[in-house]
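Re: nicotinamide-adenine-dinucleotide structure - here you go.
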Amino acid sequence: MVAISSVERPTMECETEHFLMAQRQLDEIALEMGLDRELHERLRYPKRALIVTVPVRMDDGSVKTFTGYRVHHDVTLGPAKGGIRFHPEVNLGEVSCLAMLMTWKCALMGLPYGGAKGGIRVEPWKLSAGETERLTRRYTSEIINLIGPDKDIPAPDMYTNEQTMAWIMDTYSINVGHTVPSVVTGKPVSIGGSFGRTEATGRGVAYCVRRAVKHFGIKNESPSVVVQGFGNVGSVTANLLHQSGYKIVAVSDVYGGIHNPKGIDIPRLLAWLSEHGKVEGFPGTEIVTNKELLEIECDVLVPAALGGVITAANADKLNCKIIVEGANGPTTPEADMMLHDRGIPVIPDILANAGGVTVSYFEWVQGMMHLFWSEDEVNQRLEQIMGRACDQVLELATKDKLRPRMAALRIGVSRIAEAKRLRGLYP
Ligand code: NAD
């Protein structure tokens, strides 16, 4: 690995294990592509990071304070873009790691954005709707100097949604004195959101699955798929693949998984889920744990729940031919190498789940230009951009015998490096 910086630069507060993982990925690709040492050093850290204290009046009249973050990793290509998550594990390292991944993801997709991420350390399930709204509004006012349609455009992430974006947009608009829909993406359609945004990430994952199946020569007429996580990303992916004639043999949620080697009727499962609140118990299926689910024999495995689920402990037990990452960071670097040695290609998160940020970009463009595209138009444009990025990654991986993750990173990092070189260093 590249020996860089430890002597000249003291450790930064963001350098948690999580962040160091993203940094190691950058170091690996920087070495492989011969990236200029000074540019590499600049890209290893966030450009700016803001930590805020967020006081909130609780329903019982008391005041509680929460810690919030907003990090810009890089803004060379345009305004920073990235989600806001509410979760008890949010910290500066995690947010900085995810901001860095957003930089590579946006560059890879050819979007005119830099990378950002934000969050509040909170157990969101313990808050009432009113407390969540006050928390969101106060956090927005604390980070208001960083955000704006030309500066930084937040979007939903774990435990934030369309409603959260509507509150952020309203708080920002009231503070600047006029309505600014384009300060966030992932808004409800009635206040400037885009058709197709909710399904965009799953649609992009499904596209990558079909593309990878073709590229890696899976001959099965009805390829079998296992999906971990049956939320926004997982359920849309499973449903679209089901519609394309794929056989979804197992899916899971936080409570556990279900398995039927003959295939699961996904539209009926969706109806079951909205009635029962979990996939378990769906007729004609056997119960499996989330751990067992990952080891089920299939053509394609789609982790679409949490990060860090495919590790050195289970990488040699997986029974799939291809992995397509719906979640952010589901595969640890050690597992990635083990899978590579086993000949199992991994389509990386920064490509596979980039459908969300791509349609966020469409939402921003429509907002800035006062346009309204139909859902078909949005989906067509999404397929065009996903198709181009998939082709570029798979071609480079084949040509230079790289893991798809390394190929995707090399494309993203080299675009940022080139832009930095051309812009030069101020002053
Ligand atoms: P979601 O909250 O809609 O769904 C998450 C799903 O995972 C649910 O079915 C939940 O029950 C399940 N789950 C939670 N904990 C689990 C566990 N321990 N084991 C198994 N399943 C578990 O979230 P989402 O929007 O679908 O996001 C899923 C992943 O995709 C996250 O890693 C997220 O960062 C990533 N992602 C989402 C988007 C997007 O646009 N929604 C975009 C890019 C990346």
